[in-house]
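Quick one - inputs below.
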Amino acid sequence: MILYDQLIGPFAEFAFMRRALIGTFALALGAGPVGVFLMLRRMSLVGDAMAHAILPGAAIGFLLSGLSLFAMTAGGLIAGFVIALGAGVVARATELKEDASLAAFFLISLAVGVTIVSLKGNNVDLLHFLFGSVLALDDPTLLLIAGITTVSLATVAVIYRPLVLECVDPGFLRSVSRAGGPAHIAFLALVVMNLVGGFHALGTLLAVGMMMLPAVIARFWARDITAMILIAVVSGVISGYAGLLLSFHTGAPAGPAIILVAGALYAVSVLFGPVGGVLRQLFPGRHLEA
Amino acid sequence: MKRLALAALAILFAAMPAAAQEKLKVVATFSILADFARNVGGDRVAVSALVGANGDAHVYQPTPGDAKTLADAKVVLLNGLGFEGWINRLVKASGTKAAMATATKGVKPRKAEDDHGHGHDADPHAWQSVANAKLYVANIRDALTAADPAGKDAYAANAAAYLAKLDALEAEVKAAVAAIPADRRKIITTHDAFGYFGAAYGVSFIAPQGVSTEAEVSAKDVARIITQIRKQKIPAVFLENVTDKRLLERIGAEGGAKIGGTLYSDALTDEKGPAPTYIDMMRHNVKQLSAALTS
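Output:
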């Protein structure tokens, strides 16, 4: 009975807790696979850069029509796509590598965003949405997040083969198919979409956490991509559930609590993970014989 | 005596046309103080506000332009009680020689109701009680007089006229609250800025967040508030112009309370809004309260 009160009661009693739970589950489902591919392609920090790149678009949307879900989403998506494509074009047309041109683009974008916000003078509402409001998910926001997750999962299913091949052997992919380019662009679009969905719930800064931390956790528990994706989604779901409970019982702010739980899972994985974890590396023999 | 003073004033003005044109530069930290200063100073002063209409002074980021405004000022008006956490550094940075005047001098500070164990010790939103607003006006009058002794009589006359308006406003507020049934005088609002209003006029304000907009809200707080709405049968939930509206809409929907209009607490609106001056703001708030609570 006490266990029920502690673990399930909050969700049974309060609709806002159920909404937050559904929202974080959807985010975990959508962002988990994307995060795994980002990590395998050594683009872990690209998510962070893209999250900043979204800011000016969301800010312009906010200035044009206030805290409107549609305007901020559209603005964020447009800004994200422009930065992703712009960085890609510069990388292919010049000597600059993609990570360097992305760094340049996202910093410019971030500066534009902060300038727009400051010029308007009223920066308060924007500050709130930068940190998200996982406890205030209304129907349109939930539908948006769920829709993004659906599209994201379907797209990952469609471009799964070229994506996996590009992680493992990009040279081979280029020699047998021309799907690599379009798949790469579709993949970047998925990153942007999931981040835009995430910032409504967790804010631009913590949305990246829901994408990358589960993926990094999964790296310590599995060697093949399918298992990694599953573990990433499950650890995202666990973080969402435990983080909300943490916030409910201790009074910690909800968004950071979710990411902190994911951080704790990461620490455990670093120590005890069977694939390259610290303990495993210290005592390799015992595990191999068993 | 009065006639003599007026005559002296007339001569003074006639004798110094150049001095009369040179307006006293006054900088107020936020829009409500600026409104008081304009009313007391009349056309002898040029007032500017650092945090303008609809801005939130709690989380304000000063700009280099603000430092320049401060450097040019003769008088700086601030609320005090920890409201403008950023002002000391800004004053130092600007190197201004302006006289600093704290408008809450003489106000009896309320303890902030803060469950988070951080934030300010005193609740800074003292202007939400009209009685305190009268102290603000007196302090501003004294500050302007000290900086511009020649305008003493003008400031005294303006302040007296404005104080009379505030008296009328206070009577209006009390009458409106008296018309609300006593057991319905409780509301929920996002930002705990109405402590002084509640204490002065007998309305309970319950906030889902702590006293400052700096703290991020937790699931525990939200659950507590919803439980409270359900248990105490709180009739109305109000939005405010400075914090997250989506959160409040959720709380209202889940607890079964009515969503009231917007209350203005920390900032005035611009000319087109419903609360361009302090008196308009108080009238607007009281009207919204009675509309939601009497029905």
